[in-house]
């Protein structure tokens, strides 16, 4: 505030008006605390992980010998790891597909003028906010064998109860469904904001051309939703590839090792089998897989977008 | 909309809402039912509501202690995240040098690290620092996992704040620090609400790292303590469910009053 705004006050000696300097390099100090934290708690562990992965450390003793790439070779020959890797991709891709379908469906439905749609959106979105542990526990009540809510319903129709958790194939499906139902609300929100971003004129112009209903959806809405599709797919796929909590609560990775993701397998290899070196190698592989998927997906979406624009 | 389209739309929406609400309903019936009550999980025990499960969750599961731990970790981690992210975002938004673009890239790369992939080295690092089973040992890694998105949100927001505001303050003789404190930081309120919601929900619900870092029952946070109680007392599901309700209620209350902010904030955090 300038001194002239207070004429009754004693005017201080006017400061020489120098033009403000552009932000100097010293303001870079402001990101140093964050970078120090990253260096200590993320970057150092990532590098340290590579070095631990080349030892036979058990995680407790001070004995550890350099074993070179042995643990990485083991990753590729261990059937438990390949099961976990396959499952990780099923969790990732399966959840991504279901979440796109349901997310887009409810976004389109709740974009219509409907009484109570605000409440409906809030309800569809609600599970996003609870811990996946709680979500898993609640769905345990749905899928358990005795007194399970789903088997109760089957019983009403005279069908035999199903053992949802002890058959690996079924359990994997259950985990995908629970994870998808929990997070489809995020996809719905992303698509809703995409839909609301489509200018009304475009929709009206299309309606005049006679392309309404499904045709309008296919020729106007879908291309306009590409950015929303891209961010939703990347988010869901990475979330699915990292899946840990729901598996741990619903099956603990079992029966045997059959429903593990790489994330749950790492915990088990480290603390269950005291094979810290091997667990670190699994971690390095998981990290690389996620980096490759993220970079590839983003590259592909960028390319598709530039194709669409040309 | 034609009439039968409207009916179909309404039916689909109702089905979706029902599917999302059923698990919560089942949790309620289970939490308030006697353990020996073998009636259908669909039936609410109107005649015989029991508080025994809640009592067991508190006495044996240590759920109240866990709630306290979660509150401590959530408040401090959220505060730290907001502070560090707002600070870090300013130079990234205002000084777009080669160095700072490199820093931005590093921060985005940190976002890709799956927490479980660094479980072994992180655990041994915390062990070496004496931070295992301490608040700091959990808070600092969780802050690191949440910081990149927060920095990104603050940076985007700051880039939209016109430089002329700062220049005006500087011409009036304010130092750079004063300008930040008086002009810039107060402007950040809307994006701070977003960051608070995203971080608080994540930290409050976090399970994977918390369950490995907080090794003793006294230090355990909510999600691991519910999971441990469920794992150790597979026979007493009722109590585990009752305990988990304690963890859900605070978020539900916040959601009820701040629904708009939650949805807007979560959307901002999801879209990049």
UniProtKB/TrEMBL annotation, chain A:
A Gene Ontology biological process term: transmembrane transport
Its membrane topology: Multi-pass membrane protein
Keywords annotated in UniProt: Cell membrane, Membrane, Transmembrane, Transmembrane helix, Transport
Subcellular location: Cell membrane
Tagged with keyword DNA-binding: no
Keyword tRNA-binding among record annotations: no
Pfam families reported for this sequence: BPD_transp_1
GO cellular component, one term: plasma membrane
PANTHER family with a match to the protein in the record: ABC TRANSPORTER PERMEASE PROTEIN, INNER MEMBRANE ABC TRANSPORTER PERMEASE PROTEIN YCJO
Protein name: Glycerol-3-phosphate ABC transporter permease
Source organism per UniProt: Propioniciclava flava
TrEMBL record, chain B:
Originating species: Propioniciclava flava
Domain ABC transmembrane type-1: 67-258
Main localization (coarse): membrane
Transmembrane segments: 7-28, 71-93, 105-126, 138-161, 182-204, 239-258
InterPro entries: MetI-like, MetI-like_sf
The protein, known as: Carbohydrate ABC transporter permease
UniProt key word tRNA-binding: no
Entry keywords, A to Z: Cell membrane, Membrane, Transmembrane, Transmembrane helix, Transport
Organism lineage string: Bacteria, Bacillati, Actinomycetota, Actinomycetes, Propionibacteriales
GO BP terms, alphabetized: transmembrane transport
Family recorded in the similarity comment: Belongs to the binding-protein-dependent transport system permease family.
Cell compartment(s), UniProt: Cell membrane
Cellular component, GO annotation: plasma membrane
Membrane topology designation: Multi-pass membrane protein
């Amino acid at each position: 505030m300038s001194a002239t705004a207070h004429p009754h006050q004693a005017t201080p000696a006017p400061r020489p008006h120098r033009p403000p300097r552009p932000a100097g390099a010293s303001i870079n100090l402001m990101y140093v605390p964050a970078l120090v934290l990253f260096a200590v708690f993320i970057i150092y562990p990532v590098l340290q992980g590579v070095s631990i992965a080349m030892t036979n450390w058990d995680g407790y003793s001070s004995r550890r010998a350099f074993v070179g790439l042995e643990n990485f070779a083991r990753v590729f020959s261990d059937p438990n790891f390949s099961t976990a890797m396959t499952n990780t991709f099923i969790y990732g891709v399966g959840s991504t597909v279901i979440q796109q379908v349901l997310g887009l469906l409810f976004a389109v439905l709740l974009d219509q003028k409907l009484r109570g749609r605000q409440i409906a959106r809030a309800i569809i979105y609600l599970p996003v906010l609870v811990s996946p542990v709680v979500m898993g526990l609640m769905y345990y009540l749905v899928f358990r064998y005795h007194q399970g809510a789903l088997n109760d319903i089957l019983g009403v129709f005279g069908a035999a109860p199903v053992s949802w958790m002890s058959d690996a194939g079924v359990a994997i499906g259950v985990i995908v469904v629970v994870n998808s139902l929990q997070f489809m609300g995020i996809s719905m929100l992303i698509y809703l904001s995409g839909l609301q971003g489509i200018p009304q004129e475009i929709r009206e112009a299309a309606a005049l051309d006679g392309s309404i209903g499904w045709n309008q959806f296919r020729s106007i809405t879908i291309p306009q939703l590409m950015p929303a599709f891209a961010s939703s797919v990347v988010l869901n796929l990475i979330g699915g590839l990292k899946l840990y909590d729901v598996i741990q609560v619903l099956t603990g990775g079992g029966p045997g090792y059959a429903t593990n993701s790489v994330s749950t397998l790492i915990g088990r290899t480290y603390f269950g089998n005291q094979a810290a070196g091997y667990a670190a190698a699994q971690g390095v592989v998981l990290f690389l897989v996620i980096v490759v998927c993220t970079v590839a997906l983003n590259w592909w979406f960028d390319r598709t977008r530039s194709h669409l624009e040309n | 909309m034609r009439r039968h389209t409207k009916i179909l739309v309404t039916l689909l929406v109702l089905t979706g809402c029902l599917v999302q609400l059923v698990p919560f309903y089942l949790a309620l019936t289970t939490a308030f039912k006697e353990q020996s009550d073998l009636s259908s999980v669909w039936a609410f025990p109107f005649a015989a509501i029991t508080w025994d499960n809640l009592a067991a969750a508190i006495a044996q599961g240590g759920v109240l202690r866990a709630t306290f731990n979660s509150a401590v970790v959530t408040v401090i981690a959220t505060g730290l995240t907001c502070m560090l992210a707002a600070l870090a975002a300013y130079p990234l938004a205002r000084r777009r040098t080669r160095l700072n673009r490199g820093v931005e890239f590093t921060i985005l790369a940190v976002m890709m690290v799956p927490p479980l992939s660094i479980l072994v080295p992180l655990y041994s690092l915390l062990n070496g620092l004496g931070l295992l089973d301490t608040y700091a040992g959990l808070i600092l890694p969780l802050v690191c996992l949440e910081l990149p998105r927060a920095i990104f949100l603050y940076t985007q927001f700051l880039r939209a704040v016109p430089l002329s505001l700062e220049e005006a303050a500087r011409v009036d003789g304010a130092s750079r620090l004063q300008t930040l404190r008086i002009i810039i930081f107060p402007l950040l309120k809307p994006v701070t609400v977003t960051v608070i919601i995203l971080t608080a929900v994540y930290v409050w619900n976090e399970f994977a790292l918390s369950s490995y870092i907080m090794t003793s029952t006294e230090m355990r946070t909510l999600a691991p303590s519910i999971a441990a109680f469920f794992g150790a007392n597979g026979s007493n599901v009722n109590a585990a469910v009752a305990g988990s309700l304690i963890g859900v209620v605070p978020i539900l209350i916040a959601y009820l009053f701040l629904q708009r902010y939650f949805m807007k904030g979560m959307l901002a955090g999801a879209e990049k």
